[in-house]
């Protein structure tokens, strides 16, 4: 007959062992989840290795808050009333696993390659006033809101407007769509489109901290950006594209390392599962 025992009826060593196994389950499982999410980020980087202006994501792992462990006990006082005092003996700190804190884009400049297509544009960073600063083209998404991109793979739509490959309007410095009436135009290094009868300045936006921007997909970033400071040095080149800054070889190496870590945590989780099964069988036999 199997009897369910109260925790207080179990041997202390068995209770502590079961508690350690449960914590081990969570620690190993958190390692597997974090490595899976890192694999997803790396896979996305490799998939976009040929996407113009793409910025690779870097996964930041963090440990869960440490816990300070104490051994709970009591100290009996030899008196007629049988007094005892609770005691806490410090054991040490313990971590309970890791998690993916965030994916941080690497905003480093990608290589520039020549395409010979007049609507292909690239921002080439020079000396910026802030170490964390960045320059972007300004575009308008499908909801009419301003967004920023480094992907200068533009084209001209049927109405003669300069647009991205997704159909988003490329904006000028006044925040208006740019009408080119064709793909034949000249661009100066300061970002001025020279058209018949008029010159239009591209809407180049600057942020002093690129880490405050958020990715939205389709190469777009959302956040606060403003006018380019006068001391910023940069050029806008025509007929070229900024390539993705993904290092495919390094990403593949990181993916293999992440996969090995996943397998290691998987083996640990399996060992804990077998130990827990053995512990449950021993508890049942105590009845």
UniProtKB/TrEMBL annotation:
Domain Flagellar basal body rod protein N-terminal: from-to ranges: 25-55
Location of the protein in the cell: Bacterial flagellum basal body
Gene Ontology terms: cellular component: bacterial-type flagellum basal body
Alphabetically ordered keywords of this record: Bacterial flagellum, Cell projection, Cilium, Flagellum
Superkingdom classification of source: Bacteria
GO biological process: bacterial-type flagellum-dependent swarming motility
Flagellar hook protein FlgE/F/G-like D1 domain segment(s): 133-193
Signal peptide: none
Pfam family, one: LlgE_F_G_D1
Ranges for domain Flagellar basal-body/hook protein C-terminal: 237-280
InterPro entries named in the record: Flag_bb_rod_N (IPR001444), Flagellar_FlgE/F/G (IPR020013), Flg_bb/hook_C_dom (IPR010930), FlgE/F/G-like (IPR037925), LlgE_F_G-like_D1 (IPR053967)
Homology family: Belongs to the flagella basal body rod proteins family.
NCBIfam families, A to Z: FlgEFG_subfam
Protein name, per record: Flagellar basal-body rod protein FlgG
Lineage: Bacteria, Bacillati, Bacillota, Bacilli, Bacillales
């Amino acid at each position: 007959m199997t009897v369910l025992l109260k925790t207080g009826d179990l041997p202390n060593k068995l209770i502590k062992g079961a508690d350690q196994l449960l914590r081990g389950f969570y620690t190993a499982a958190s390692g597997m989840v974090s490595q899976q999410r890192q694999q997803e980020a790396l896979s996305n980087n490799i998939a976009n290795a040929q996407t113009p202006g793409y910025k690779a994501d870097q996964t930041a792992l963090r440990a869960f808050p440490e816990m300070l462990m104490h051994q709970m006990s009591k100290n009996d006082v030899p008196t007629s009333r049988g007094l005892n005092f609770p005691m806490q003996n410090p054991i040490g700190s313990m971590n309970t696993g890791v998690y993916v804190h965030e994916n941080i884009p690497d905003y480093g400049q990608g290589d520039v390659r020549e395409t010979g297509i007049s609507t292909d544009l690239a921002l080439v960073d020079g000396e910026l006033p802030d170490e964390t600063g960045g320059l972007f083209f300004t575009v308008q998404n499908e909801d009419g809101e301003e967004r920023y991109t480094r992907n200068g793979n533009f084209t001209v739509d049927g109405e003669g407007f300069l647009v991205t490959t997704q159909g988003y309007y490329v904006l000028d410095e006044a925040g208006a769509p740019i009408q080119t009436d064709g793909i034949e135009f000249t661009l100066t290094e300061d970002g001025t489109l020279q058209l018949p009868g008029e010159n239009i300045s591209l809407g180049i936006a600057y942020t002093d901290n690129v880490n405050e921007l958020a990715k939205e997909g389709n190469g777009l970033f959302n956040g606060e950006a403003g006018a380019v400071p006068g001391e910023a040095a940069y050029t806008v080149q025509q007929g070229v594209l900024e390539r993705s800054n993904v290092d495919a070889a390094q990403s593949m190496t990181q993916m293999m390392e992440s996969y090995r870590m996943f397998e290691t945590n998987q083996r640990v989780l399996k060992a804990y599962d077998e130990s827990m099964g053995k512990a449950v069988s021993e508890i049942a036999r105590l009845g």
